[in-house]
Structures
1.
Amino acid sequence: MDVIIIIVIYLVIINIVGFASMGIDKWKAKHHAWRIPERILFTIAIFGGSLGSLIGMYTFRHKTKHWYFVYGFPAILAIHIIIAAYLIGSGNIIIM
């Protein structure tokens, strides 16, 4: 399987996980259940799920009053975009 396809599949899955984790944590917050630790939410974002986590944050209106989420998730996404642009621009990753 082509490396680009594997990367795309990984990013789709991790972003679905990021989106879902925000929704699940919001549900748990409303029902006073055990919560997903904030470090896990950030770990998912750091490992490629920043877009899904950011969309989930605003879709479910979850963690939107915490400055470190409001600024942290977009910052992580920006870093991911910069890294991707660098890798594509340097020729290390070729998109056909």
2.
Amino acid sequence: MFGNLGDMGKMLESLQESAQKMEADLASKEFTVKTGGGMVTVTINGKGEVLDVEIDESLLEDKSSLQILLIAAINDANKMVEDNKKNSAMGALGGMNPFTQQS
């Protein structure tokens, strides 16, 4: 009657190991985004930590534009990380998307 629970436990353990491996793999990746025609470049890692910011000198006198482009670049880079997480998870789960709500 409960023989399948052991199989279920092994499957959950395997999924947890896969998730930890995916997280470690993602953390080691770098994502670079350019905004404003390449005037601002932001590089982050898979944890969402900003590793590098490059700013075109012409923006140093335009604080408002610089702020807007930095925000856009950081948000775009974080979106790349999230998209990569989703794609990795879907691949590991054979195409099932754990990020959509079932109704």
3.
Amino acid sequence: MPDDEILTIREVATLLKIGEKTAYTMAQSGDLPGFKVRGQWRFRRADIDTWIRDQVERAGATRDDEEGGR
């Protein structure tokens, strides 16, 4: 998939394997990087890929911190 691909809320929800309402709530709160076009959410695939990498790294760092504190 090209990096400049634009995804809909449904496509992002499918990609992340979450509900559309969850994706919408996350976009509204700024947790997912997106923008609106005439009131409808859109997402750059490259931004979502970066967001996923950041979440995985953050989860790994948290796990490392928890294991180091034992």
4.
Amino acid sequence: MRTYSISEAAKKLNLTVYTLRYYDKEGLMPFVERTPSGTRLFKESDIGALKIIECLKATGMPIKEIKSFIDWCSEGDSTLQQRYDMFMERKASVEAQMEELRKTMEVIEHKCMYYKTALDAGTEDIHKNDKVGSSITN
């Protein structure tokens, strides 16, 4: 079975070695084996688990809550409901973020159209009859 050093694992995950050491210090990597001299040995399954950690982090989940998830995984099937509920909460949170981003994109697309039209006309005066009068709010 292929194992990776911490620097190889960091490179595979597009993270820094410092980040992986921090995760280890915070208890997010109890699954990573060590040699007798203390060198971390990352397996493919460890890389997969770290990808889940990065996914949760990208949703805005605090490290403390990610640690709870890792602990639940270690506890086994008795925590399946907690893990499911946690992912359902994450899903709802990401859906809300996506809706906010969709609204933001609508404003940006409107402003792109506004300025493209003004550029094509050579003036913002083309928008003088718009309901909202200034380029800051249009």
